[in-house]
Structure to design on (82 residues):
């Protein structure tokens, strides 16, 4: 334990019951035990870096989108929408 006090000790030191502490401070408990409840320590976890795509892959994606837009244009012209 790193500076954490159990609810039983806290209740005894405060002169109250565990039930009373849970009733009034239950919203705090999940924040106090984030690692134990989730398995993730939110104080030390770092966001994952987004993988950068290669320029070739990006160009290929844009080429595919451009082709798709051309096909849509042809189809809409056939239908008389453009």
């Amino acid at each position: 334990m790193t500076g954490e006090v159990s609810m039983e000790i806290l209740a005894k030191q405060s002169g109250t019951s565990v039930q009373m502490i849970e009733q009034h401070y239950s919203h705090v408990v999940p924040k106090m035990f984030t690692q134990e409840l989730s398995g993730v320590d939110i104080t030390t976890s770092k966001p994952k870096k987004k993988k950068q795509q290669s320029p070739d892959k990006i160009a290929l994606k844009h080429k595919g989108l451009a082709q798709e837009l051309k096909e849509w244009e042809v189809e809409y012209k056939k239908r008389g929408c453009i």
Q: What stands out?
A: The two ends are 70 Å apart (CA to CA). The longest helix spans residues 55-79. The helical segments are 7-14, 18-25, 29-32, 34-38, 55-79.
